[in-house]
C-alpha cells in the first residue's frame, strides 16, 4: 500500500508540474486584423495558371490576390507599394512565398493594380483587414485604398485639361510626387491629390502616359475647372 501511495503521489506531481513550451508553442500567433509587415515581394502570373492553390481553387493570374505564409486563407489585406504610396485590397489566396527574403507573392492581377508589374521585386507593406476594423469599407479584392479619381473622357484639341496623377493619404508622399511631375499636392478631404492643370490635350496625354509608365496607372485626364 505504501508503494502504491508513493506512485500515486509521483503521478500527481507529474501532472501538476508545468510543461516546458516547445519553440513552436512559444511563438506568438498571427493576430488577424493586427498583422502589419513590410518587405520585398515579387509576382507570378501565366506560368502557374490553372494550378491548384492552397484554397483548392485554380490559380487565375488576373485575380487580385497574394500568397502569404500565415495569414488566414480568403482573408483580406491592404497592400501598399512603399515607394509610391499606392495601395490596394487583395485576397489571401495561396501559401507562399518560397523565398525567405519575401514577405508575400503577388498575383499578376494584384501587381498590375498596384503598379508593380513592371518591376521584378517591389517593397510593399501588408496589413491585415478584418470585419469591423478601422477600414470596414475596404472589403472587395481590387478596391482602391484611396477614392477613385475619375472616368476617362474624350479630349478636345481646343480645350484645357488637368491631370490627376495619384492620391495619397500621406501629405509628404504627395508633395514628393508633385515635385517630380511639376504638379501640385491638393487636399481633398482625407487624402492629397497630385495634379497638374492648364494643359492642352496633347500635353495632358503625355503626362498621363508618363505617370502610368512610372507606376501610376490610375492617372486620369479631367476637364479644367
UniProtKB/TrEMBL annotation:
<dbReference type="GO" id="GO:0042834">
    <property type="term" value="F:peptidoglycan binding"/>
</dbReference>
<dbReference type="InterPro" id="IPR009009">
    <property type="entry name" value="RlpA-like_DPBB"/>
</dbReference>
<keyword id="KW-0449">Lipoprotein</keyword>
<dbReference type="Pfam" id="PF03330">
    <property type="entry name" value="DPBB_1"/>
</dbReference>
<keyword id="KW-0456">Lyase</keyword>
<dbReference type="InterPro" id="IPR036680">
    <property type="entry name" value="SPOR-like_sf"/>
</dbReference>
<comment type="similarity">
    <text>Belongs to the RlpA family.</text>
</comment>
<feature type="domain" description="RlpA-like protein double-psi beta-barrel">
    <location>
        <begin position="37"/>
        <end position="125"/>
    </location>
</feature>
<dbReference type="GO" id="GO:0071555">
    <property type="term" value="P:cell wall organization"/>
</dbReference>
<keyword id="KW-0732">Signal</keyword>
<dbReference type="InterPro" id="IPR034718">
    <property type="entry name" value="RlpA"/>
</dbReference>
<dbReference type="GO" id="GO:0008932">
    <property type="term" value="F:lytic endotransglycosylase activity"/>
</dbReference>
<dbReference type="InterPro" id="IPR012997">
    <property type="entry name" value="RplA"/>
</dbReference>
<dbReference type="InterPro" id="IPR036908">
    <property type="entry name" value="RlpA-like_sf"/>
</dbReference>
<keyword id="KW-0961">Cell wall biogenesis/degradation</keyword>
<dbReference type="GO" id="GO:0000270">
    <property type="term" value="P:peptidoglycan metabolic process"/>
</dbReference>
<feature type="signal peptide">
    <location>
        <begin position="1"/>
        <end position="21"/>
    </location>
</feature>
<protein>
    <recommendedName>
        <fullName>Endolytic peptidoglycan transglycosylase RlpA</fullName>
        <ecNumber>4.2.2.-</ecNumber>
    </recommendedName>
</protein>
<comment type="function">
    <text>Lytic transglycosylase with a strong preference for naked glycan strands that lack stem peptides.</text>
</comment>
Amino acid at each position: 500500500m505504501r508503494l502504491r501511495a508513493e506512485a500515486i503521489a509521483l503521478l500527481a506531481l507529474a501532472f501538476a508540474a508545468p510543461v516546458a513550451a516547445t519553440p513552436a508553442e512559444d511563438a506568438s500567433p498571427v493576430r488577424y486584423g493586427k498583422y502589419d509587415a513590410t518587405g520585398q515581394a515579387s509576382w507570378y502570373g501565366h506560368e502557374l495558371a490553372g494550378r491548384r492553390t492552397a484554397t483548392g481553387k485554380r490559380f487565375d493570374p488576373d485575380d487580385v490576390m497574394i500568397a502569404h505564409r500565415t495569414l488566414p486563407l480568403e482573408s483580406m489585406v491592404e497592400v501598399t507599394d512603399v515607394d509610391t504610396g499606392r495601395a490596394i485590397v487583395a485576397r489571401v489566396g495561396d501559401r507562399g512565398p518560397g523565398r525567405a527574403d519575401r514577405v508575400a507573392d503577388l498575383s499578376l492581377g494584384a501587381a498590375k493594380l498596384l503598379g508593380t508589374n513592371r518591376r521584378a521585386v517591389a517593397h510593399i507593406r501588408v496589413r491585415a483587414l478584418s470585419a469591423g476594423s478601422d477600414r470596414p469599407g475596404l472589403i472587395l479584392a481590387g478596391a482602391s485604398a484611396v477614392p477613385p479619381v475619375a472616368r476617362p473622357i474624350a479630349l478636345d484639341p481646343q480645350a484645357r485639361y488637368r491631370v490627376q496623377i495619384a492620391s495619397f493619404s500621406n501629405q509628404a508622399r504627395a508633395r514628393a510626387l508633385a515635385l517630380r511631375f511639376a504638379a501640385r499636392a491638393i487636399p481633398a478631404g482625407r487624402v492629397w491629390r497630385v495634379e497638374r492643370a492648364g494643359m492642352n490635350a496633347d500635353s495632358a496625354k503625355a503626362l498621363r502616359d508618363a505617370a502610368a509608365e512610372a507606376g501610376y496607372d490610375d492617372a486620369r485626364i479631367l476637364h479644367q475647372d
